[in-house]
């Protein structure tokens, strides 16, 4: 977690600096004695956690925090102050925590423990790779499915990008050879998928609606979603979920989008 300390009396943060350096989850990337310097740094670098003094000569800590949140809405903000009259401002801007001076070593440890927990909650544990063969990564490591069909159903949900998948539609796509409208195979396979996800502690990524199942895209990262939202073609290989023939429709859409953008460049 990339961290900055901002205080016009940096000596007052020595305890925090020492504890940050001892915490493997915190990477201290900058120490600043003016808000302006800190802001210039944040405009060109990633800042995930900011420990801010309130009273500084050029810009107070509350204003700096607002500017940092404009750059990164998920930045964790902790205020340090000796004045309780700022409490209402902390609440209004939704600061994550605040510490009143003088603080103790126990206060420092408590803040960093809370910040570490917050950081873990912000990080999305699941990443889907769709360019090439479909893969799911959990906490940065490839996830091995016990069976292929539950994996394919999950791939189909990823392809739907949050749209609902009904049982009959899933049968037509994943089991086209099956006829007669029996959806028991879908229900059994979906139950197996939910069991695997539950054992991994990530079953909340698949949700149920009255019309079927869908992927909660807010809980995952995906190379396809990143491309579509940012037009970032860096990871696009010209292949998309090459394991599955039904993915060819999305691949055709991607190719059309790619050449349209390239032609307009």
Characteristic terms for this protein:
265 residues; alpha/beta; Rossmann fold; Arc Repressor Mutant, subunit A; 2 domains; five-stranded parallel β-sheet; four-stranded mixed β-sheet; 10 helices; elongated
Q: Evaluate the radius of gyration.
A: 24 Å
CATH class of the largest domain: Mainly Alpha
Low-confidence stretches: none
* Count of domain modules: 2
Q: Any guess at the CATH architecture of the largest domain?
A: Orthogonal Bundle
Main β-sheet, in a few words? 5 strands, parallel
Strand arrangement, major sheet: 2-1-3-4-5
Give the number of DSSP strands.
11
Distance from N terminus to C terminus (CA atoms, Å) equals 36 Å
Helices, by number, come to: 10
- The shape, in one word, is elongated
Secondary-structure element string: EHEHEHEHEHEEEHHHEEEHH
Helicity range of the residues? 40-55%
Question: Explain this structure to me?
Answer:
By secondary structure, this protein is α/β, with parallel strands linked by helices. The chain folds into 2 domains: 2-122, 3-Layer(aba) Sandwich (Rossmann fold), CATH 3.40.50; 126-264, Arc Repressor Mutant, subunit A (Orthogonal Bundle), CATH 1.10.10. The protein has 10 helices and 11 strands. The chain has helices at 14-22, 35-44, 61-71, 87-92, 105-122, 148-160, 167-174, 184-199, 223-230, 248-264, and strands at residues 2-6, 27-32, 49-53, 76-81, 97-100, 126-129, 135-138, 141-142, 206-209, 212-215, 220-222. Strands 2-1-3-4-5 form a 5-stranded parallel beta sheet, with helices on both faces. Strands 8-7-6-11 form a 4-stranded mixed beta sheet. β4 (76-81), α4 (87-92) and β5 (97-100) form a beta-alpha-beta unit. The longest helix is centred in the middle third of the chain and has 18 residues, at 105-122. It is elongated, with a radius of gyration of 24 Å.
